[in-house]
Amino acid sequence: MTDTIRRYFDAFNAGDIEGMLACLSDDVAHHVNEGQVRRGKDAFRAFCEHMNRCYREELTDMVIFDAQGGTRAAAEYIVNGTYLETDDGLPEARGQTYRLPAGSFFSLEDGQITRVVTYYNLADWIAQVRG
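^ thats the sequence. predicted structure below, dont judge the formating
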């Protein structure tokens, strides 16, 4: 199942929302850091479109783990980003760059991702963009 996770992250780095969606089940549960659970591909697409408008990010130093016969996976990586447009409730965007360790956890079924959970340190990100 690491192939599915790798395709998901390759699509992320390419800014390919449709490629990411192709890795997801129709009823995917997307647990956003500091946010609510979004359910389904339409909610995931809307989240990605918002993120692409406000941030440009590339994930590097990727390490992917899988377990439980391919039904669970995790990844840790570094988010290298640029803050492009002010996001609601966050500091003003002025093209600041940031570098942030992060991780994601996945559930998989029949080769598709059914759950995505992403974690990073929001306080660290805010400190970096505030300078």
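The mean pLDDT is 96.
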